Amino acid sequence: MFFCLISLFSQEKEKIISSVNDRIEIIDSYMESEMLSLDPEEFLDKMAHHGAALNGYYERDRLKKIVKNFGVPTAMVVTTFYFWDDQLIHVNYKQKEYMKQKNEFGRIVNDYSHSYVKFESKHYFNKGKQIDRKVVGKPLKEITLDRNFIDYSRRMKVLLDDKFNNRNAYADLQGKWMNTEFPDEYIIFEETLRFNFRNGKFIKKFKVKIKDEIMSCSSPNNNYVYKYKIESLSKYELVLQNLQDKSSSPVLYRKEE
After folding, report:
1. For residue 217, which of 205, 208, 228 has the smallest C-alpha distance?
2. Do the beta carbons of residue 175 and residue 186 sit within 8 Å?
3. How far apart are CA 12 and CA 217, in angstroms?
4. Shortest CA distance to 123 belongs to which of 101, 155, 99, 145?
5. pLDDT 10s digit of each residue in the chain, 257 long?
6. In what order do the strands lie in the sheet with 52-59?
């Protein structure tokens, strides 16, 4: 009986893995996916040694794939996340070690334009749990292996979905906005980042998240979140109501071309 249960479990797992592989092929075959990118400051706590990028791929307004590139001193780490019905089904993790070359001084240096897959691991998930892992090669000793793929993919999905679902609002926000009541104060939006200035001097930087017409601005230096109601937003005018100070009047900003 025990061995029968093991056999049934193994058969069920192989069936799930086969289904996941089929779905991976379907996702990779999408020809008209809409790509959305996050800037490094939007998804990294610390900057990469040699570049970083995170792209989300959407099909019919649903996230299907995330590709993250993170450069470390010896390699480019590439992690690809696959989603089906908004659930993580697969992660492909690669450590692509840089090739070596001689520079003009005869020193051996990294050739960042050429690399090879030193280590690869494929992870299969079902109903929020990892059910299998396949490994090829040996990981580089100086790189800490990523393990908590489920939590990380959820956090990145939230960031991407927020930016995707509010992409029109973020697009209209981009640029420099002057405070009409206090002309010495202005704000600049770049992607999902907000920069406050006064008298031409930089004051603060915030990460911006928009949901249900509420703009949340969080500072990397503390846990406090400033919240504003977007009363109106066009390509040329922005009206914000400070939700922490409901007695204050809405502030009108005009975009500076």
Report:
1. 208
2. no
3. 46
4. 145
5. 544 545 555 788 889 999 999 999 999 998 788 999 998 888 887 777 888 999 999 999 999 999 999 999 999 999 999 999 999 999 999 999 999 888 778 788 888 888 999 999 999 999 999 999 999 999 999 888 887 899 999 999 999 999 999 999 999 999 999 999 999 999 999 989 999 999 999 999 998 999 889 999 988 776 789 999 999 999 899 999 999 987 899 999 999 97
6. 34-38, 52-59, 62-71, 75-84, 87-102, 108-126, 129-137
Say which amino acid occupies 26.
Answer: I
Q: Classify residue 213 as left (phi > 0), alpha (psi -120 to 50) or beta.
A: left
